[in-house]
């Protein structure tokens, strides 16, 4: 018999106990469910390394580049902090992209977890903004990348140019831009942490999804020790993967032009953002009109937000959705292609491939409402289908409400 | 000195690792498991790899033909 410490029943500790220790979790979760806690770990790594880097970094146009070199060469362990922070951002995006694709495959966005999904997209947006403004402005590629992307705001009708001037703090990317970007770069990770807590709270309202995509109330086990240990395995594997980049290939995910101080008089031949922005960058460039490109980027996030609400499938997991399963792999292939196109020059045949791949990306979201109904016709009289019919779902929710009351 | 009776302690003997099976299930039927994974997932793997590899091949082939076209 396990003795429960009475401390776990005290106010704050009882919350921790209910959500992290005794929390009922589906027994059949695979390692694809470990990426959530890994994302939390990445956020903590970024905040800690970032705070210590900020102690030595100088956000001034004349000193920023040199202060980073000072961190790398003179500050004890500075090289490690810098490389952990730079590669940690890449790791954060790898983990989050895998987390998103897991959600897409297993239908974790489907009812009743729409809020979890939407909060996740908000976190992704915050991460993108944080990474962009934290990329630095006083290196060749950072400077020109910032110039290109902030200039996109001029596509907004009427007030576009005013917004760009406000963003820059002047008429070009300069000292004012550096300061007004550095400040929110320090702040936003804490906003992300708050959004992550909301994301977890929304998840714990109905509990985690599982690889089968069915109601798992009949077979749940305590989070601790089972998934604590499972997540720990994931953390160790992540630490090894992260360490390979930090200690053996710290610059492989970066751009060599960033070791050249920014020169407003010399534009690089090919301006490319960091690898995690390449798919969205490819979609932006696939439309020659600036406003159209900006609208396309907006449409990407609108599509992500709308996904739980346009989904018509009664089945969650792609394990039981043969057509969606193939479309999922095509979407993944499409995103990989978009990422590749994003770092290619704007010439044939990359332009045409980028345009086709962009259409392919939106095709997945366009077909989602039709696909559910099509698959429902194919899967008839199955337990999985019956379990998630809307009438059954509303019956389950009513019962749940009665239990809670 | 006379013999003093000594209470014998129980000694537990265990088999050496060479004589017992450790985590036997981990690699049991690994050939069958691999084959099953392949049969279940080869279509998905092909759906993922073919567009990427095919498009990359197409682009490289296009660039090569363009280079040759511009040569005397």
TrEMBL record, chain A:
Its cofactor is heme b. It is found in: Mitochondrion inner membrane. InterPro entries: Cyt_b/b6_C (IPR005798), Cyt_b/b6_C_sf (IPR036150), Cyt_b/b6_N (IPR005797), Cytb/b6-like_sf (IPR027387), Cytochrome_b (IPR030689), Cytochrome_b_C_euk/bac (IPR048260), Cytochrome_b_N_euk/bac (IPR048259), Di-haem_cyt_TM (IPR016174). Residues 1-212 form the Cytochrome b/b6 N-terminal region profile domain. Its main location: mitochondrion. Binds 2 heme groups non-covalently. It holds the Pfam family Cytochrome_B. Keywords: Electron transport, Heme, Iron, Membrane, Metal-binding, Mitochondrion, Mitochondrion inner membrane, Respiratory chain, Transmembrane, Transmembrane helix, Transport. The chain crosses the membrane at residues 31-58, 79-102, 114-136, 143-166, 186-206, 227-249, 294-315, 327-342, 348-367. Component of the ubiquinol-cytochrome c reductase complex (complex III or cytochrome b-c1 complex) that is part of the mitochondrial respiratory chain. The b-c1 complex mediates electron transfer from ubiquinol to cytochrome c. Contributes to the generation of a proton gradient across the mitochondrial membrane that is then used for ATP synthesis. Belongs to the cytochrome b family. This is Cytochrome b. The lineage of its organism: Eukaryota, Viridiplantae, Streptophyta, Embryophyta, Bryophyta.
Automatic annotation (TrEMBL), chain B:
InterPro entries: Cyt_b-c1_8-plants, Cyt_bc1_su8_sf. It is found in: Mitochondrion inner membrane. The keyword Electron transport applies. The keyword Transmembrane helix applies. It comes from the Eukaryota. Pfam families: Cyt_b-c1_8. Keywords: Electron transport, Membrane, Mitochondrion, Mitochondrion inner membrane, Respiratory chain, Transmembrane, Transmembrane helix, Transport. It is a single-pass membrane protein. Its main location: mitochondrion. Belongs to the UQCRQ/QCR8 family. This is Cytochrome b-c1 complex subunit 8. It comes from Sphagnum jensenii.
